[in-house]
Amino acid sequence: MIKNKAANTCSVILGLLLASGLFFVPFHQKALAYTIQNYQENVEDRFVISPVNLELDLSPGETTTQSMMIVNRLGRTADFSLSTEDFQGSTNPDQATVFLGDQSSGVTSAKDWIKPEVTDINLNHGDRLSLSVTITVPQNASAGSHYAAVFVSVNSQNPNGDKNNVQLVSRAGLLILINVAGQNMEAGQLTEFKTDKVFYKNGPVEFSTVFQNNGNVYEKATAEISITNILGAEVGHVTVPDWVVLSNSSRRQTAQWPNKWLFGRYTAHITVFYGFGGNLKLERDVVFYAFPWHVALILILIFIAIYYLIKYLASKFEIKRKPGAGSQAEISDPENNG
Amino acid sequence: MNKNKNKFKKACAFSLVLVLISGAVYISLEPAIIRASATANDSANVNLAVDPTLSISSPADVSMSPDITGSGASTGSAAWAVTTNSVTGWKLEVNASASPAMVSGANTFADYTETTLGTPEAWSILATASEFGFTATGSFAEAKYTSSKYQGFQGTTKIQVAHNSTGPDAADTTTVGFKAEVGASKVQPTGNYQAVITATATSLP
């Protein structure tokens, strides 16, 4: 009897547990489900995505879910498609990213790790779609940085049907940079630090810096430039905007010293910080010269004019002390006074 | 005469010395002048989060004109406006869905062939050829396209046509001009030729 009662109680508890489990599943799914809200958006013939990039530190086997938003301000209902694509850096310092289409970037690939919650969706004008993007790092993922983008694309309107010769697709991409924990190597070098000119008439002075990342993780470089004149005194300080350099690639960053008045020889010293917490440092100098010849020419003409004016005044007038009148000076005309 | 010449020489020497003295004075006072131009501030923090966004317009498909009758050229254009509030800026790239880009069944226009691959040039094709290419204009279009220089698509490989690394700005419009031409000696099969062109906007990391 007691045994049966205990068995019944166990069944009830088990039943409740199972039922609660069944309830939890849909709730859990609802937490991940995308939402669409409609706002009175202006018609701007564009669509908007947010955020524009994500930087994540993950371990092999780890999964994270990030939010993404797509806003339709096209002024029409449109079909949006989401896809993922690998990208990598470039040895060309003026090309920050290279997108690889259907190709895999190999060791830095991450496109197969990223799953947007929806891949095709129809949105009305003013709709704001909030969706989740799940990123799962495989157990066997190599250490270092991995890169992929989530692209949102929409086909253009087709006013003339098949008569249109060029059909257009517009895409906007969310960049995802993932640092996978493990044996990460950080190594970099400054391959360029120069000014746009060697000789200046006047400022501003443009600095160009190329950081080459030889490591397997992307670097967020920060830099300060200190400018000293011929006497060694610091006359300027420039904070270079932070810049991200993907692994095994180079990237240029520019900065400007806006000072207009320059004269003589200047030395600019750059200190670039990179690595975890900016614990690694690179330094380099560049020398440039300035001579405001246009100002000097004007000054020379002014001084020549002053010289002649003084000479003229000296030939026409003389300064005489008044007889017996202390130190008061008197200007007299030499011709009238003899 | 000689007296005047000497006088002028003296005046020049006098002026030069004064200019050099002025320069030396400026160099010695430069740090103080720079410091003086810096202003002292008192500040209070007011925080407001603005989400980073990137947007791209979606121009209508392009109907090139005029129709080509035997031989001749046809043009069209599309303008993409890119906006971001990302401080690092944006770039715009274009690519075709196929190689060559402009096709009608089995018949094609070849992608425009530059003398140096990847270097845009003034439009010029052989009389025996039919080619399709593009150029780009706009405040942030790549300088290599200035003066109506054309380039051919390279299949799905993305070609950067514009970038803005100066940070947040109002919508920056880049117009991509398309051109197709059939040479005088080329017999181009009749058909409704089409190309699918994708414009991709991304922020700079």
What report would you give on this structure?
The complex is a heterodimer of chains A (338) and B (205). Chain A is α+β, with helices and mostly antiparallel strands and 338 residues long. Chain A folds into three domains: 139 residues, Immunoglobulin-like (Sandwich), CATH 2.60.40.10; 103 residues, Sandwich (Immunoglobulin-like); 45 residues, no CATH class. Chain A contains three helices and 21 strands. Chain A is elongated and about 105 Å long. The termini of chain A are far apart. By secondary structure, chain B is of the alpha+beta class. Chain B folds into two domains: 41 residues; 150 residues, Sandwich (Immunoglobulin-like). Helices cover 18% and strands 34% of the residues of chain B. Chain B has one helix and eleven strands, in the order αβββββββββββ. A six-stranded mixed β-sheet of chain B has the order 1-2-10-7-5-4, with no helix packed on it. In chain B, β4 and β5 form a beta hairpin. The longest helix of chain B is centred in the first third of the chain and has 36 residues. Chain B is flat, with a radius of gyration of 28 Å. The chains are: A alpha+beta (338), B alpha+beta (205). Chains A and B meet through β2, β6, β10, β11 and β16 of A and α1, β1, β2, β3 and β11 of B. β11 of chain A pairs parallel with β11 of chain B, so a sheet runs across the interface.
Q: What structural category characterises the helix and strand content of chain B?
A: alpha+beta
By DSSP, the count of extended strands of chain B is 11
Q: If you average the pLDDT of chain A, what whole number results?
A: 87
- Kindly report the oligomeric state of this protein: heterodimer
Low-confidence regions of chain B: none
CATH class of the largest domain in chain B: Mainly Beta
Helical content band of chain A:
10-25%
**What percent of residues of chain B adopt helix (DSSP H or I)?**
10-25%
CATH H-tier superfamily of the largest domain in chain A: Immunoglobulins
Rg of chain A computed from alpha carbons, rounded to a whole number of angstroms: 35 Å
Distance separating the two termini of chain B: 71 Å
CATH topology of the largest domain in chain B: Immunoglobulin-like
Helix/strand/pairing category of chain A: alpha+beta
The strand count of chain A comes to: 21
Q: Could you tell me the strand content of chain A as a percent range?
A: over 45%
State the helix count of chain B: 1
Which residue ranges of chain A are poorly predicted, with pLDDT under 50 across at least 5 consecutive positions? 16-31
Number of self-contained structural domains of chain B: 2
Distance between the termini of chain A: 149 Å
Question: Most extensive interface, residues per chain?
Answer: A-B, 73 and 68 residues
CATH architecture annotation of the largest domain in chain A: Sandwich
